[in-house]
Amino acid sequence: MVKQEILLGNGAIALGLLEAGCQMVTSYPGTPSSEILPEVVRFVKSEKLDTYVEWSTNEKVALDTAFAASITGKRAACCMKQVGLNVAADSLMSAAYIGTVGGLVIISCDDPGPHSSQTEQDTRFMARLAKVPVLDPSDPQEAREMVGLAMDISEEFRIPVILRPAIRVSHARQNISFGPIKKNKKQASFEKNPQRWAATPRFRLVLHGELNKKLTEIGKKFENLSRYNFHNLESGKQYPLGIIAGGIPYSVIRDFLSEEKRIDIPVLKIGTPYPFPESLAIAFMSACERVLVIEETDTLIEYLLRDRNKVMGRLSGHVPSEGELVPQVIHKLINNALKELNLELLQSDDDQEAAQLVKDLELPVRRPTLCPGCPERAAFFAIRKTRPKAIFTSDIGCYTLGLNLGAVDTVLDMGAAITMASGFYHSFAQDAVEQPIVATIGDSTFFHSGTTGLLNAVYNSARFVLVILDNQTTAMTGMQPTPALGIRADGSEGKAIPLERIVAGCGVDFIEVVDPYDIKKTTSLLKKAVKYVKDPGGGIAVIIARHPCVIAYPDRAIPQKKKVIITDDCVECNFCLDRFECPALYHDTELGRVNINREICVDCGVCIQVCPKGAIVEA
Amino acid sequence: MEKTINIILSGLGGQGILFMTRALAQAALDKGFNVMGAETHGMAQRGGSVVSHLRLGEVKSSLVRTGTAHFLLSLEENEGYRNLPFLSHGARMYVNTNSRHFPREEAKGLLDKRKIIYRSIPAGIMAQELGAPRSSNLALLGYFSAFDEGPINYKDLKTTIHKISPKRFKDINLKILEAGYKKGKEAKK
Ligand code: SF4
Ligand code: SF4
Fold first, then answer.
1. pLDDT band at A350 (very low <50, low <70, confident <90, very high)
2. Which one of A361, A366, A479, A563 makes the best mutation probe of the B interface by having the most chain B beta carbons within 10 Å?
3. What is the CATH number of the domain that holds B57?
4. Cβ A398 under 6 angstroms from ligand 1
5. Stretch A95-102: mean pLDDT, rounded?
6. Could you tell me which chain A residue has the CA closest to the CA of B104?
7. CATH number for the domain including A500?
8. pTM of the entire structure?
9. Which residues of A touch B36 (CB under 8 A)?
10. Residue A559 placed within a domain
11. Residue A162, strand partner residues
12. Closest CA to A568 of A522, A612, A615
């Protein structure tokens, strides 16, 4: 029976994976990819499949694991965000040479904007660098179909294939119809062949040659893949302007042109940017005097087009080189090009008045903040209070928002809280300067990339305080479990690995656990840690600030609700607003004191410990 | 081909925009519309500005272009203003606010000039009084449906909310939806 559901793009991708008979899916959560694996789990349960799923500790682990499944002949996939592919790059580059047996699809979600990432990097370039094919879907339904194509190509040509959904594919919602999903019964088998699976450099050259041949063959296939690479030229006709587009920009452009029935502007859609369907592009270009290239996020298609003289794109300054190409931007780009060529413009009633009004209204900028009741806020407050002069290295997660509390100075990449703390320590120690350093890292980030850095720091005698913010979940990306919990991706039981054991295993001798809700205790423990760091016989001090996330565990996080009120002792110093920044606290001009927004206050009572005048009390 | 209907939903992370988007999308699908939408996940969900786009009709792209939205539902007043550029001539906006001075004087001129019809409801307070302070999204939805200006009416929403609410929230959700609807009915008189 065929059902219809409104699926997130990531749900459509999950569906596509299972429809393609995927037998293993691994992932590390990261916006905008995080929902793929949970959706896989949901379909596996409802369709009674036996696909193996796991939250891996990081993206490289995820890819290595899926790669092994692939060389047993099974179909496997791994999912991550674009910067996660950097972590998995080592694995990817090598896997491209070695090749696959069963289909292996890597789903790497891009984030033009960026909305929730450190960079706007373009996965298509990673595919080009690794020499693996990449498919660029324009909407959830197409993403679902392309997953199947990716599996088939991977298996036919024995090469990993990347699917690159941009955030507007992953986080789009679309109604999708689907029927029952069949189980893939393929059995694992491993044929020993060290020359291939453990190839030495000499044989790598041979593999490289094979890889190049595969790409040529796939390129030929893509030339004729009219489902995903196509144009609407009328044969024999010449056009003053054509558009080449892929991914999300294609959808936007398609909508504009069909709304206004502008058949005078032909479009070449590129669904497989690499290997590039070059003959198709040449045919299209020769029918157009000028060509506007609109792609996200970088200039892959533009680089691959040979006749630059015709091209209007990023390299010629026609398309912005950073930021998301939202519809109004694309609309303007097209109109600019049409204007330059004296052609009829697209209609627009989009006057700038509203945008100007919004500017004039001077609306408050709503920066993201830690949730009301968030345990990390309490930890940051204590850290800043104890070590106001420290360098605060931090990391990636909700707690990056410790920025707002003045307790985060640096964020580089996953795990850099620890490695940069090390680097800072040695830089200052070299000058005989005793620079206080407090590093903060989340539990999930610590599992992802913390241990190697910590081992290194201990081994090389760095000195700093490390606070592991252990909220017992991967909060930012939607509450995925961590290895410390012993709950696996499908909800089944796994072995729980306590952080304390890992930290001890890294050679750390000072390990203390505290509930950050108790600010006094946290502060005194931090002082003890600082002493240890300074002590000649000391070293790195690790404090595990353990308290459940209020969103993931609303009941457990606040076992005893404390209804808080603010008395007339409040002198409007705004200390609590500046230093503690709970979004439920605000300055009430009418009352002449701070007040509490009951709509969002979760009665955690932590703010009671914050007010220097004792004006915040339990009711 | 039916004309596409473009809807913008805005507010702050944590106010339940995603649920509101899901409810409208599901109700629309059940009425036979094709649904395409775009959501905000990730960092902004921690209290930042959050916007959902919802498009009903035969479209490929999930984002609404500025100047083309027919409806704006905002769970917060300032976020409502922030998204004004999306609205088309003659659009309608429904805003959750306690302010008696809605809309702000500076915004009135533009709203009137573009013939945008604006309405407000203290959805937050209503939800709080009914014992579910975080359900202002449902009160706003109910209010919106009372005017019957969009493709989805109160009955549709009631069915959908019943269908998609987790069991323990079903009754309270429907109660708040109804309260919003009644408020809208009164305002309509
Ligand atoms: S989701 Fe959890 S960890 Fe993240 S800010 Fe909120 S309470 Fe803190
Ligand atoms: S009790 Fe205080 S700290 Fe906790 S949520 Fe309410 S206002 Fe914020």
1. low
2. A366
3. 3.40.920.10
4. yes
5. 97
6. A361
7. 3.40.50.970
8. 0.94
9. 139, 172-174
10. no
11. A106, A134
12. A615
